[in-house]
């Protein structure tokens, strides 16, 4: 895409914003599979321009064996070819999650985005817009604007009117690593008109690297959401109703009162159709209630989520500056997506080299879903040229059995 003078100026301004690490010097470029690598002690990760996606993330397990913890493809070219496209590791945008009826209103004007989910007889193309539409950001190639040994920055210019959204948006996505830690910072600026903006990382996690010889699913993983005693109520299409529900103790959505194995949630009340019509599992927007704390630093206050596996011993703490946390238990996977060569068991007929139903967990740090159609919530999701940058940040910190690895 040709950049206008205004877009170039905004890109320069965005680049000047403080990032999680310096990205001034050049990295080594892509490998033979089109992947860009960054590394630090205890962690290696690869990224691709398509969707600004994370493609590999290696952490050593309790036995010192390197495990690739995220879903993806072996080669960067596969992402644009595979029609299943499960948003593997990409940045959904310019508005993540769902938009009710594929419409929203700004200053009295109604805008329409192309529907791409939940087709019905009356709406054969879909009843709502998911992750920015059929050509959302994670279907497009970003530009690699900086790459060092420990950091990579991608940029995109989303033009006025694309996927029905008003105004141009310029965005930088910066990923960095340090010892046993992966961070990201996503910055977006509306340069010409008011427009919805909400970004996230749509990473598929399996802390066993799909190599568990006891189960292929992630239902053995334990999840803790200490601030999430409430969730957004949704209808059968997972569209918010406007209500906020309590996650009662000892029910399927109770991950706040104590850590709980995902599989246990499938045995508790509320699990049926918890992820939509005729769906058993999780596709749930949990609220992150920290306002009562007063001023706090999200980097040190405590993780908004913790995930661990007793098999690999890998423990992941997620820190974020966002006020919601979407959990998706890969209910839509059906064993047709192949694992990467860096994952899974080989030559074992009992464990196909594919991702099964419930074989992963997506954890999206973001704001309250469809807040643009629920103004009574008071969420800041419409951004204009006078509003400054939209920013979302997160930190993924790895340890073994919950204990910090020795340096």
Computed CA radius of gyration, to the nearest angstrom? 20 Å
- The CATH architecture can be given as Distorted Sandwich
Question: Roughly what is the average pLDDT, rounded to an integer?
Answer: 93
The main sheet comes to: 9 strands, antiparallel
CATH class: Mainly Beta
Determine the N-to-C terminus distance.
44 Å
- Uncertain residue ranges: 10-26
Read across the widest sheet, the strand sequence of neighbours is 9-10-11-12-25-21-20-15-18
CATH-assigned fold name: Beta-galactosidase, Chain A, domain 5
Tally of separate helices? 3
- Helix and strand composition category: mainly beta
- Approximately how much beta-strand content do the residues carry? 25-35%
Question: Percent helix among the residues?
Answer: under 10%
State the order of secondary-structure elements, H for helix, E for strand.
Answer: HEEEEHEEEEEEEEEEEEEEHEEEEEEE
Shape: globular
Supply the number of structural domains. Answer: 1
Family: Belongs to the aldose epimerase family.
Region (Disordered): 111-130
InterPro entries: Aldose_1/G6P_1-epimerase, Gal_mutarotase_sf_dom, Galactose_mutarotase-like, GH-type_carb-bd
Protein name: Aldose 1-epimerase
């Amino acid at each position: 895409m040709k950049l206008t003078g205004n877009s170039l100026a905004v890109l320069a301004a965005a680049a000047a914003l403080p990032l999680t690490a310096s990205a001034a010097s050049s990295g080594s470029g892509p490998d033979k599979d089109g992947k860009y690598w960054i590394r630090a002690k205890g962690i290696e990760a690869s990224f691709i321009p398509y969707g600004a996606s994370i493609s590999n993330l290696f952490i050593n397990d309790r036995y010192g064996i390197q495990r690739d913890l995220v879903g993806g493809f072996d080669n960067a070219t596969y992402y644009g070819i595979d029609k299943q496209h499960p948003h593997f590791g990409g940045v959904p945008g310019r508005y993540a999650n769902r938009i009710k009826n594929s419409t929203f209103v700004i200053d009295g004007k109604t805008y329409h985005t192309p529907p791409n989910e939940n087709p019905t007889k009356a709406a054969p193309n879909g009843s709502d817009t998911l992750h920015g539409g059929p050509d959302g950001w994670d279907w497009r190639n970003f530009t690699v604007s900086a790459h060092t040994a420990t950091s990579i920055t991608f940029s995109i210019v989303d033009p006025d009117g694309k996927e029905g959204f008003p105004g141009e948006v310029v965005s930088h996505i910066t990923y960095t690593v340090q010892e046993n830690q992966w961070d990201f910072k996503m910055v977006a600026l509306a340069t010409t008109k008011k427009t919805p903006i909400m970004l996230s990382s749509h990473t598929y996690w399996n802390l066993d690297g799909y190599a568990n010889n006891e189960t292929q699913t992630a239902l053995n993983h334990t999840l803790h959401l200490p601030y999430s005693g409430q969730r957004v109520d949704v209808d059968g299409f997972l569209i918010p109703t406007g209500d906020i529900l309590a996650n009662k103790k000892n029910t399927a959505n109770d991950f706040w009162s104590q850590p709980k194995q995902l599989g246990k949630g499938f045995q508790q009340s509320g699990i049926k159709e918890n992820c939509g019509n005729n769906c058993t599992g999780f596709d749930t927007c949990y609220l992150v209630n920290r306002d009562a704390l007063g001023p706090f630093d999200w980097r040190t206050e405590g993780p908004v989520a913790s995930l661990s596996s007793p098999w690999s011993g890998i423990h992941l703490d997620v820190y974020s500056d966002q006020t919601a946390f979407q959990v998706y238990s890969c209910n839509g996977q059906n064993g047709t997506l192949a694992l990467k060569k860096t994952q899974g068991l080989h030559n074992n007929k009992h464990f196909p080299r594919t991702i099964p139903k419930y074989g992963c967990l997506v954890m999206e740090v973001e704001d309250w879903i469809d807040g643009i159609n629920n103004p009574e919530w008071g969420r800041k999701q419409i951004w204009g040229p006078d509003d400054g940058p939209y920013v979302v940040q997160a930190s993924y910190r790895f340890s073994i059995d919950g204990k910090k690895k020795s340096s």
